[in-house]
Amino acid sequence: MSTAPVVSNDDVMAALATVKDPELHRDIVSLGMVKDLRIEDGAVDLDLELTTPACPLKDVIEEDVKKVLQPLGIHEVRIDFGAKVRATTPGEGKQPVAGVSNIIAVASNKGGVGKSTVAANLAVSLARSGASVGLIDADITGPNIPTMFGIPAGVQAQQQGGLRPVERHGVQVVSIGFLLPRGTPVVWRGPMIGSAVRQLLHDVPWEGIDYLIIDLPPGTSDASMSLAQEAPVAGSVIVSTPQAVSLEDAMKAVSMFEKLDVPVFGMVENMSYFIAPDTGTKYDIFGSGGAEQAADELGIDFLGAIPIEPAVREGGDSGVPIVESHPDSESAKAFHTIAGQVAARISVLQRMGS
Ligand SMILES: Nc1ncnc2c1ncn2[C@@H]1O[C@H](COP(=O)(O)OP(=O)(O)O)[C@@H](O)[C@H]1O
Ligand SMILES: [Mg+2]
Prior knowledge:
alpha/beta, GMP Synthetase, Chain A, domain 3, Rossmann fold, 2 domains, nine-stranded mixed sheet, three-stranded mixed sheet, 34% helix, binds adenosine-5'-diphosphate, binds magnesium ion
């Protein structure tokens, strides 16, 4: 005979209604997150549906649920987390992208700050959390994403029917580089670049993509402008290095997005500090913290700092992003935190819009 107290569904639901989603600031019951509940012999099995599989605060929710159920005499709580990513509602004049729920633009005003590296690692990190992820290489005149994903240049040059995503490291990747042998210069001008970006969005058969990351070329270029004007971009991530000059540039990117009504999720400081591979010692080479201060001045969020680690570059060159090759490295952990924050930001925006 069981000695566990009899606890009803209503008792448990009432207790769960006191648990708040830490980001959405509403309780998990009224948010409709509790999908299934089974109580047996003082143990509770619970299906919780999150707004993103990359939820950074899963553990907090789990702890809180256990805490509120304990006084009811429940000695065991098993939570099965699921996720349903909702789609960005396209603003006026924006054309939704078929098969894509949310678009995230990765931008900066300067080349070489690590935009493509950030885009690649955010994409792989979100995919590793269980999201369905696409990545567009919108750096039409200097596509680097094929190399970073180990996809040979020109793989689809002979193919009929246009560009199609290639799946690598769990990400659906598309790049103009799939059509061109390595090193072929693209000498297109503004309007053509704009239309190429449009085609990467609308003419590629995307399917069931939760997050589509766009690696933009540096600057407030044609590609960035047409994207921000026409596509329902959920928000942008600005990449900067700590040096002041690059910060000034990053500010230009921020104001471009603000003018075009694209939310800025925040700023990432890349190459923030150096970790010596032999000793693990941390060195501030460019004077760490510059981007955080600038983000503060601009009134945007600071999403995190990524160290300079030789393995990051090696990952880029060898076609295996560091979050995949060294998931326990400092950089991979930083990328993962940033990815979770971006996903959470999208969930919050949607909750506000609905
Ligand atoms: N955190 C980092 N640590 C080490 N190398 C990095 C880091 N971020 C970027 N790199 C390297 O710097 C170079 C430029 O990065 P990339 O992502 O191509 O910049 P962008 O897209 O802004 O031009 C690449 O060789 C890349 O591997
Ligand atoms: Mg790049």
